[in-house]
Amino acid sequence: MKRAVILIFSILILCNNSQAQSASSDTGKVELVQDYKVKALLNKHVEINAKSSIKGYRVKIHFGSDKNKANEIKAKFSTLFPDVPSYAKYDQPNFNIRVGDFRTKLEAYKFLKEIQTEFPSAFIVQDDIEFPKLDLSEKK
Fold first, then answer.
1. Architecture of domain 55-129 in CATH?
2. DSSP codes of every residue in 58-90
């Protein structure tokens, strides 16, 4: 499905580039006329990829049947590590609190060692993780 979307997108861009650019030689400006379908296709591509996840690792800091205790631990973690995402999941009969989005086990292990004093029963689990956030700001 993704390959088909990319192929269609590429064909539309090639077709538009051959016909859509017109340059005025005396002003030095380039005008690009783009079909609305290209933008719709690009938005569809972004939407499909935004829902995707990849295999990775998280650190499980709590599991138990008490929902209030799970929420308490999640709040404590969020206070101590506000930059690290935390996820609450209910797998009957337990509430699980998993934290982080680590692509490698080594990254997860480093973080586990960092939080083990506060959460001594934490351990690493394999999970579907969110794509890392891209930093689009210019770095000098």
1. 2-Layer Sandwich (3.30)
2. EEEEEEES-HHHHHHHHHHHHHH-TTS-EEEEE
